[in-house]
Amino acid sequence: MTDLQKLTIGKALNLGLRRAMEEDPKVLIMGEDVGKLGGVFRITDGLQKDFGEQRVLDTPLSESGIIGTAVGLAVRGFRPVCEIQFEGFIFPGFDQISSQLAKLHYRTQGKIKMPVVIRVPFGGGIGAVEHHSESPESLFAHIPGLKVVSISNAVDAYWGIQEAIKSDDPILFFEPKRLYHSGALRAEIDVAGTPAPVFSSQVVREGTTATVVAYGPSVKVALDAAAAAADEGKSLEVIDLRTLSPLDLGPVFESVRKTGRLIALSEAPSESSLTSEIAARVQQECFYSLEAPVLRVTGFDTPYPPAKLEEHYLPDLDRVLHAVDRSLAW
């Protein structure tokens, strides 16, 4: 029996959380304003009403307290899902994430599992003040013991949050906040179906001229650039990384061996970033297939700017197409 629904990313996450809570009474949701308000982006809307205050907990404004409590709950057999209200608020909890959450399974030789999901709305494009539009995913991808995921569409949002909750690994689940309620990204999902694996890279548009690899909010930019490039006779292959740690670069290597060119796209600053790692690994594995250096299109190496300047900061279609032209001119 199928149950097809056309959902935005935000609604897909809400229904995915709901299904996980229905299937497992050990699943709890914690965070600032996630209960009565339903979260500042309304991702948890209606869940406290239906599952009660014992399972959807409004917490104090303390990220270290939220994550520290989740670690204790996981030790006792629960599966906490923590919401960080905005990505820039995560740093008071960095010690708990890096020193406890990421290490306990290894430290106890596998005796203690950490099935904790930390949902992180991230990225720019919403006209917010500082600490509300950052891209800190590379910092967490560098920490052994954590899995880092970033979804870009409603299908992966619905199935991915459920797969993350069922995992015994601690997972940071980065969500592109500016795309939460985009009607253009609505997708038809069989919400009664069987989950499909999402912790791997995926070719989302095939092409032969150059490869563009992206994740999170940058995937839409890459797809828009590919559509524009097609009007100029250029065929761009677009790959959505989906999992940022561990990186699944097999599809990227295969694509680069076909196209000979790679553009790595991300909103985050370029220095010591995921795009740096991608460039290094592709050069290492595909050196004799490359027709040009790996090029990167990223945010700038500055703090995130005021809202009036963010359109100049964020990588856009024109910057991606310019990188493609530079690669082809090499």
From TrEMBL:
<dbReference type="Pfam" id="PF02780">
    <property type="entry name" value="Transketolase_C"/>
</dbReference>
<keyword id="KW-0560">Oxidoreductase</keyword>
<feature type="domain" description="Transketolase-like pyrimidine-binding">
    <location>
        <begin position="7"/>
        <end position="182"/>
    </location>
</feature>
<dbReference type="InterPro" id="IPR005475">
    <property type="entry name" value="Transketolase-like_Pyr-bd"/>
</dbReference>
<dbReference type="InterPro" id="IPR033248">
    <property type="entry name" value="Transketolase_C"/>
</dbReference>
<dbReference type="Pfam" id="PF02779">
    <property type="entry name" value="Transket_pyr"/>
</dbReference>
<keyword id="KW-0786">Thiamine pyrophosphate</keyword>
<dbReference type="InterPro" id="IPR009014">
    <property type="entry name" value="Transketo_C/PFOR_II"/>
</dbReference>
<dbReference type="GO" id="GO:0016491">
    <property type="term" value="F:oxidoreductase activity"/>
</dbReference>
<dbReference type="InterPro" id="IPR029061">
    <property type="entry name" value="THDP-binding"/>
</dbReference>
<protein>
    <submittedName>
        <fullName>Alpha-ketoacid dehydrogenase subunit beta</fullName>
        <ecNumber>1.2.4.-</ecNumber>
    </submittedName>
</protein>
